[in-house]
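User: My instructor asked us to take a sequence, write out its structure as tokens, and then describe one feature of it. I'm not sure where to start. Here is the sequence I was given:
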Amino acid sequence: MKPDGLEELKELIAFLKENEIAEFDLDRGDFKVRLKFASAVVPPAAPASGLDLVSLARLMGLSQPGAAAPAMAVAPLAVDPASAPSAGAAPSAPAVEAESLHIIKSPIVGTFYESPSPGSSAFVSNGDRIEKGQVVCIVEAMKLMNEIEADASGEIVKRLVTNGQPVEYGQPLFAIRVS
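Assistant: Let's start with the prediction itself. The structure tokens for your sequence are:
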């Protein structure tokens, strides 16, 4: 990237932050940029006005004098405050652990699936009795389906994640009452 292109990119970032634009894609031939800003809860904003898009297009050198501004995908960040975790809220897993239940945790980062294929029944449900080594779910990582086995025998008390949810290494998946 040329030094003048870097300066344009800095100006673009400042413009996007100033106008509270959360995500932006730019495709100029062989040059592609995707900007995504993570921020605190931002109130839903009105869509960017035509003037803002024209200014942005001129800033990036995308419009010619007298030409219409190109169509751009501009999406202000809209987060539902009710779904955002509050600072004092305790995660559900420690609350379950307080009941002295055994927690089956994800051994890898990936996507949690409760069943072997869409439309088929879940490996386990609340109230099911499981044995050590029994498959309880699948965690997909890099297009590989990894069967997750129970590391203890007992009864499923609670599934702590939802189907299709991304999970982290060590994230609690199930709470079981060991027997």
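For the description part of your assignment, you could build on this observation: The helical segments are 3-18, 50-59, 92-97. Try explaining in your own words what that tells you about the chain.
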